[in-house]
Amino acid sequence: MKIGIVGGGINGLCVASEALKKGHEVTLFERGSLMSETSANSSKLLHGGLRYLEHAEFRLVRESLKERKYWLNKSSELTRPLRFYLPIYKTSRRPAWMVRVGLYLYDILAGKHTIQKHCKEGIDQFSKQYPQFNKSNLSALYSYSDGQMDDKNLGLMLADELRAEGCRIFENSPVSRLDIDGTIHLESGELHQFDKVINVTGPWAEALLQHSDIKTETHLDLIRGSHIIINRPLDSGFILEVPGEERVFFVLPHHGKTLVGTTEVHQSIDEPIKPSSEEISYLLAAYQYYFKNGVTRVDIVGNYAGLRPLLISHKNPNKASREYVLEKNGEIITVFGGKWTTSRALGEKLANKYL
Ligand SMILES: Cc1cc2nc3c(=O)[nH]c(=O)nc-3n(C[C@H](O)[C@H](O)[C@H](O)COP(=O)(O)OP(=O)(O)OC[C@H]3O[C@@H](n4cnc5c(N)ncnc54)[C@H](O)[C@@H]3O)c2cc1C
């Protein structure tokens, strides 16, 4: 079959990869450059998502933990296992027993794909390693493992493999419209006919269907997530509660610096995708609460944001599912939602069901 793919993020590339494996002729159109939108602006974690266990998303967590291992095995240069600390304070919203249950479940769901099981850490030993970390009211400390990646370059590596396998990739080729018979209209006026078209445009998936006058049953909530980069080195990851809130945030090593994220701000598809001054202050304040190392706004050396294409399912974006939905309209198949970590599995599922 002739397959046309719209969108050159990680999901589009993984769909292309699985379609090629089935022997199809694959052409991919990307509006700008490959891997330059959501897929390059993530928290850069290959993770099961410990916090999704709070919403009983066992299927998603199990799949993600398996896929985490797939990517870790794929490139030892662009991925690595990362040890995380999870401190519990007397004031934490989640008591120690709840965290312990979550970590046991995480290890069980990982099964043979485990990186390294969780364990309880000694606070004294930790204090020696991180003397500037906030220890007042610290009552317990756990550690567990997940994966970290160079999201952009890992995707670009996959794109090189696809080109070598015969996939035709066109960058700077915005698609203006899709017809349900499988026609792709480029903004340049060119028309391309395919047997099946896969709309994998991430946060833009619903908008592209709307421009094409195709009705959809699935709707997306677009939630901006921002990160800041601080000029301090760090050698472990931290998962921490935002002071006074239920939500958690990450503090991560990042090319000799520290990455702090993320936020949850509703926005429309037409607004610029960049961190607001309030989000930067929010992330800095959360970091400063835990890291008493004198960091101020002048130590922020970078920031970025991405738009989460979340399925409309919950009023609170923190609790909205990171699952994905595939919807078929004539010869058009649209991908809604998903995580970076599960992109290969998404591509495989889509190819097995529709291609
Ligand atoms: C702040 C944040 C943190 C995250 N952290 C993680 C994490 O740590 N781990 C994890 O597993 N997941 C994470 N995610 C989720 C993950 O990043 C996304 O689910 C994933 O990157 C979505 O990939 P995609 O290919 O669907 O979308 P995108 O990467 O956005 O790709 C869609 C592509 O379609 C193109 N496009 C759009 N419209 C058109 C058009 N009309 N014509 C041609 N091309 C078009 C765009 O230019 C874009 O390149 C995070 C997401 C966010 C926002």
Short descriptors:
FAD/NAD(P)-binding domain; binds flavin-adenine dinucleotide; elongated; ten-stranded mixed beta sheet; alpha+beta; six-stranded mixed beta sheet; 355 residues
3D structure, described in words:
- There is one protein chain.
- By secondary structure, this protein is α+β, with helices and mostly antiparallel strands.
- It has a domain at 2-39 and 152-219 and 321-354: 3-Layer(bba) Sandwich (FAD/NAD(P)-binding domain), CATH 3.50.50.
- Helices cover 28% and strands 31% of the residues.
- It has 8 helices and 19 strands.
- A hairpin with a 4-residue loop joins strand 9 and strand 10 (191-193).
- Flavin-adenine dinucleotide is lined by residues 6-12, 29-32, 36-39, 42-45, 47, 174-175, 200-204, 208, 225, 262, 306-308, 338-341.
- Flavin-adenine dinucleotide (FAD) binds next to helix 1 and strand 17.
